[in-house]
Write a structure and sequence with these properties.
There is one protein chain. This protein has 278 residues and is an alpha/beta fold. It has helices at 5-11, 14-21, 23-29, 31-41, 58-67, 80-89, 126-134, 155-164, 187-196, 217-227, 229-234, 240-258, and strands at 48-52, 72-77, 95-99, 111-117, 137-148, 200-212, 265-276. It is built from twelve helices and seven strands.
């Protein structure tokens, strides 16, 4: 049984279904980070690419377009709802999506690029997981992914959580290295994980951008409390009354932050990570 069983169940429950339902909004919100990660990947025509934690496949589709008919992209995820959406979008023969736990799946060792857009922070044993992922690379293969820095540096996470805490019951502290969006906030730990997994030439550079959440505080509040970040985690087992209160105070905080702007844009802080598999 996979050590990531809890995460697999989580992404195949209501969370996975909600992410699939509101995928267009989340893709739009993450567009700046996705563009930065794709620039880092510098994928070339004819390459074979493995997209870890591909979700509904937006990045996989972009990669497939770049590698062209002579290349191939394999998107892998554990979430059936998101994979169903990804497969419905795939219209070309150079892309496929598979349901698998990347931490243990036996991938063919022929990928020029291993890529991920916020999909590698959920492993219970990240060293073992990355060691397995490295086996998927060709001898000249490279790694490129983007992950979050700390909650405090990410306004899209810290602002709604500060508002939500005014109406939430006391929360147990979350271990900073627990599987989840911010598990790789510590760049020294991240570098050590990749080194122990056998990667070399590791580069970790900060990327600061903006998350575009649209123009409606209520819609943005729903996204940031139901789908993303520490507020969503805090509400995982909350009752409907608590959820309603939290969404109200978060929407109020976002409306104040909007302050006359056309849309709600909150700061995002990421790591752009590159390495060689050999």
């Amino acid at each position: 049984m996979s050590a990531n069983k809890a995460q697999i169940e989580y992404w195949n429950g209501p969370t996975g279904e909600e992410w699939a339902k509101y995928n267009d909004q989340t893709d739009h919100s993450l567009a700046e980070a996705a563009a930065a990660a794709l620039r880092l990947a510098a994928v070339r025509p004819g390459e074979r690419v493995l997209d870890i934690g591909c979700g509904a496949g937006a990045a996989s589709l972009s990669l497939a377009e770049k590698v062209g008919p002579g290349g191939h992209v394999t998107g892998v995820d554990v979430s059936r709802p998101l994979l169903a959406l990804a497969r419905s979008r795939a219209k070309s023969p150079n892309i496929e999506f598979i349901e698998a736990d990347a931490a243990i799946h036996a991938f063919p060792p022929d990928h020029d690029l291993i890529f991920s857009l916020f999909g590698v922070m959920f492993f219970v044993d990240p060293v073992s997981a990355f060691a397995n992922i490295r086996k998927a690379a060709a001898p000249h293969g490279r790694l490129a992914f983007v992950c979050w820095r700390s909650v405090e540096e990410n306004e899209w996470a810290s602002l709604p959580y500060a508002a939500a805490r005014t109406v939430l019951p006391p929360q147990k502290p979350v271990h900073p290295h627990a599987p989840g969006p911010f598990a790789f906030a510590d760049s020294i730990r991240l570098r050590n994980i990749l080194g122990e997994a056998g990667f070399s030439g590791i580069g970790i550079e900060p990327f600061d951008g903006m998350m575009d959440l649209g123009g409606a505080p209520q819609g943005a509040g729903f996204q940031l409390t139901q789908l993303m970040g520490p507020t969503a985690r805090a509400l995982r087992n909350a009752d409907d009354a608590t959820r309603t209160k939290v969404r109200e105070v978060v929407a109020e905080a976002l409306a104040r932050r909007q302050a006359g702007m056309e849309g709600i844009r909150l700061g995002m802080a990421c790591w752009l990570v590159s390495a060689r598999a050999g």
